[in-house]
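Q: Fold this one first, please.
A: Sequence and structure below.
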Amino acid sequence: MPRDNMASLIQRVARQARITFRSPAGPAFGENLHRLQQLLNEVRAEDLHLAPRGPSAAAAASGGPPWAGVVPPVSYMHICETESFSMGVFLLRSGACIPLHDHPGMNGMLKVLYGTLRIACMDTLPAGAAAAPPPPAAGSGPCLRALFRSRQHYTPASPPCLLSPHTDNLHQIDAVDGPAAFLDILAPPYDPQHGRDCHYYRLLEGPPAGAEPPALPREVWLVETPQAADFWCGGEPYPGPRVCL
């Protein structure tokens, strides 16, 4: 369908997000979430005045990773935030990864704007669900049992990737074959004072025995880790249409 004013599109996304997540336990939540998903699926990079970018010339000349000592591997463009949701754009340099992390008690929606992302999604399992103790490689970090649900590639042609407080709440995001960007909605926003802090995890398993990775879904052990030394997120100004709420 033809799109009218692009500024109104991202504005409508924000307004629908406010409506949807103001009452996530209400009877109309499913309908509102579907409407938000439909609007988010229409958003393209040009709607937000974004264009794909490669590694910086300075980084390329250094001979190291695209971001080594020059720019962060991931940066964030803040668009808007209320008590019920936050919205912004994450930009991943070529080869960058947002490590496996959680979203405690939060809903989320992710729409690729350019490039290709590989997204691995997992669910935490109840503490008593483990059939065996964690492997010795766990070390001293807290461990939890999880269901590794999916590992899929997403492009601008893909529908949004959705997460809920109980489904696909842990995920890892990798830029594949070049830089990538995605529009991100989290509801409610991260807030350590209210128990919504970000935790990072590492998968505890060896390499697959055969050429193909083990089939999904499957149960796995995760160990909580500090934020990786080679991952950090910088900030950039948002160049797209202004959003008012």
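Q: Good. Now the second chain.
A: Here it is, same layout.
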Amino acid sequence: LSICFRTVEPLEYYRRFLKENCRPDGRELGEFRATTVNIGKSCCSITTADGSALVKLGNTTVICGVKAELAAPAVDSANKGYIVPNVELPSLCSTRFRSGPPGEEAQAASQFIADVIENSQIIAKEDLCIASGKLAWVLYCDIICLDYDGNILDASAFALLAALKNVQLPSVTVNEETGLSEVNLKQKNPLIIRKHPVATSFAIFDDTLLIVDPTAEEEDLATGTVTIVTDDEGRLCSVHKPGGSPLTGAKLQDCITRAITRHKEVKKLIDKVIKSIKPK
């Protein structure tokens, strides 16, 4: 009977749970799904990537591979490199996506990640410059969803951060006489990660009720969503709210407070995994 009711009246079905301050999957309103992260070659056989990570948020599974290439800096940013993110939501991850050019949701997710990189200053683009006006690193960050069950933004931001922390770049110098670049593959250095931005997403039910880490079904039934990005110092990097129900100042502050707590959990998880894969 409950399966039929859920199919015919999904919103009403959810409301019955929300009245009891819980959700159909057994979680409390402020509870995240089980979160795991695997970093580097242990997580995925992307041998061509300079850094990689796989993140699972409940059933939502995202992989991020970072590929570094050399290029000339832009004329107006002679001392800066580039970071180029791209989020893919292929048809294999969910029936809601079709094959072909990136859809609206994938484009919005790519823009969100680009904003997080810019606003948080996760990496100073000056750190990617090898020789001013001559040579710089370009980091192509490809984030691919393997299984979609909601909250793609949190999973993507987490996978990006974990993959960037795994990147090792070879030592590169520019020969003054020939003007050619010389790459030393034996000497590799990690990226300088200046900030650790973490995204925390909420779904808004019936214009007032906030639930954290929504599933795909919960996103469909919600009257709005909001994603808060915070850094190591608990500073607000960005608030992403694509329309929907407005939030009062008090509700928004509640979201920020919860996001700061979530940041500590995610940072702890990444640190633990990185420590475990470092050679003893």
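Q: Anything worth noting on the second one?
A: The chain has one domain: 29-277.
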